[in-house]
Amino acid sequence: MQYIPNILFLIALVVGVGFFTMNIRKVIRNIKLGHGVDTSDHKAERWGNVFRIALGQSKMVVRPIPGLLHIVVYVGFIIINIEVMEIVIDGIFGTHRIFSFLGPVYDFLIASFEILALLVLVGVILFWTRRNVQKLKRFWAREMTEWPKNDGNFILYFEMILMVLFLTMNAADLQLQQMGAAHYTQAGSFPVSSFIAPLFENFSEATLIIIERTAWWLHILGILIFLNYLYWSKHLHIMLAFPNVYFGKVVPKGKFKNLEAVTNEVKLMMDPNADPFAAPAEGAEAPAKFGASDVMDLNQIQLLNAYTCTECGRCTSECPANITGKKLSPRKIMMDTRDRLEEVGKNITKNGEFKPDGKQLLGDYILHEELWACTTCNACVEACPVSIDPLSIIMDMRQYLVMEQSAAPMELNGAMTNIENNGAPWPYNQMDRLNWKNEA
Amino acid sequence: MSDAIKVPTMAEYMAQGKQPEVLFWVGCAGSFDDRAKKITKAFVKLLNNAGVDFAVLGTEESCTGDPAKRAGNEFLFQMQAMGNIEVLNSYEVKKIVTACPHCFNTIKNEYPELGGNYEVVHHTQFLKSLLSEGRLKVEGGKFKGKRITFHDPCYLGRANGEYEAPRELLQKLEVELVEMKRCKSRGLCCGAGGAQMFKEPEEGKKDVNIERTEEAIETKPDIIAAGCPFCNTMLTDGVKGKDKEGDIAVMDVAEMIATAEDF
After folding, report:
1. CATH number, domain at B96?
2. Locate the 4Fe-4S ferredoxin-type domain: which residues (chain A) (predicted)?
3. Does B200 contact A265 at a Cβ distance shorter than 8 Å?
4. What are the chain B neighbours of A327 within 8 Å (beta carbons)?
């Protein structure tokens, strides 16, 4: 009988971690639906970006207030996880504060966890205020209704509850230690919960043990539930931000990729010895589709981008099209890509392979109007704290519209015809290109 | 003044068996747009004055393909690129300077994979090097003490990380440089990039160039300085839209230097 808690704990741990692993496998499978990209270049620069941008949060602090609050929550999250290690060991072996043999080091650790927990609590409350009281514009955009809006708040509630449970657990523990209760050895230093402990002053030992155990269990179960919540949430960024920054763009932002399939065709066209009527070689691949109309046409980095996006909206708030009231929102491009990818993923889980569902990313999620409003200014790419590139998706979809569907806005067709005919977007003769030299 | 400018072509150089130190890529706007042609001429005056041995392609130049690529027409872009690369390589061009950040970005970043490898600089970078080599002298002159705000072209700034060259030139003019609320890496686009120059904007509350012009006007400038012919057009239109064309001029950095020095 005495091992029942250990067994229950082990079951909760295995189920919690197992279920999460299963869902992460789905994420990986879905990302692999995209084209592969060679990312073996610029290794040193990529690692530098991981240290600077992801670990070092360098882009978060471009906006100092949310940046600093985020660093508090981020550091708290990482450091308090050391405490979770102790909780897991205690849970499995039925021990209590297994690391307490560390003595003064342990006191220091617990004290830091407590201070960080309080700071995280304050940070999260301020984040909540920014969303719900201050109503910052970027959290109330067109795409931030229903689930995205609730998701943002649920995460904050989760974190508030976890921190309160952690501090309550410590406060009850401290009170029990002071009463000399068996099993509760004197260990740790409690700079925050020692202010909560007086609330428990007249409680009996039995009541305190119930409070301490309940808080302990709810805290670790809460963490396991939160872990599993990630898959349905924008909060996956706490893990994916790191690989995403590694795979982020390492060439100048203005360098857009050249389509290889097109290069081959253009070379063929310019080769005077090429036979225009030649039949394709035996076993030659079908001509590539130009651009992207659905998630499978995107590359794996773009799909990883979509799962990494935490919908902070910094991209959208810097986008000239969005600022001036156009429908385009780079954040929505990322959210749409993820939603469609999830839909395709569910389709695959259900049918074993993707069965056409009569839908696609272009048109059913992202509108032509959004794509054509982009000025390719790279403000969204610059703004993203985790190196997401919404612009590359916009460009791929424009390519599909123009090269597969000839669906460019009419005036653009005019400009392109001019370029084709006379080498300038306006209808001037190429032979007049140097006339300016002799004009007054 | 225009009769005074010297604009040799690559073909003329070739005929003499010579190679210029740099090719000036004029670009479509610089060749055909009335406002941009003035920038072209101002830059040529500076080159002439500094004794730079340069040449243009003239009628052999064609659109780099930037607007086609950004509009999604990769096919047309690569046709243009390969054609231009063939011409540039046949002249064995090593170094290119251009006053258009779009041409600059495309030739610098997107041509190499297609076989076009050149050292490419923006005209503000080139002028800066002429100054540091002592070939060009710039002093305060007409703009001394004037309030100037510089609008970062997206394809020079964010796209290629060059924020300082144009500002250093302006400082040489001893102006009072004031920054807009959104500047440098967070600078707001003028609204022309991504082939927007050649189409009507999508439905919205405002045009991008008006938003940007309002930010510029907030700094109470005498002149809005630009480094791109398209930004120049957009901001000039914006200033007109705000009925401020009598008070605020929109000028390219090269034009300002040429005017200050009375070239």
Report:
1. 3.40.50.1860
2. 299-331, 363-396
3. no
4. 202-204
Where is pLDDT greater, at A103 or B221?
A: B221
Determine the residue of chain B that is closest to A414 in CA distance.
B198
Q: Which domain holds residue B101?
A: 2-131
ipTM of the complex: 0.95
pLDDT, tens digit (0-9, with 9 covering 90-100), for A79-106: 888 889 999 999 999 888 888 888 899 9
User: What is the per-residue pLDDT for A285?
Assistant: 67
Q: How far is B145 from chain A (nearest CA, A)?
A: 31
Query: What's the rounded Cα separation, in Å, for the pair B189 and B197?
Result: 12
- Total domains, chain B: 2
Q: How far is B34 from chain A (nearest CA, A)?
A: 9
**Residue B166 and residue B253 share a domain:** yes
pLDDT tens track for B114-139: 999 999 999 999 999 999 999 998 87
Interface test with B, best of A53, A58, A419, A438 (most B CBs within 10 A): A419
SS (H, E, C) chain B: CHHHCCCCEHHHHHHCCCCCCEEEECHHHHHHCHHHHHHHHHHHHHHHHCCCCEEECHHHCCCCCHHHHHCCCHHHHHHHHHHHHHHHHHCCCCEEEECCHHHHHHHHHHCHHHCCCCEEEEHHHHHHHHHHCCCCCCCCHHHCCCEEEECCCCCCCCCCCCCHHHHHHHHHCCCEECCCCCCHHHCCCCCCCCCHHHCCCCCCCCCHHHHHHHHHHHCCCCEEEECCHHHHHHHHHHHHHCCCCCCCEEEEHHHHHHHHCCC
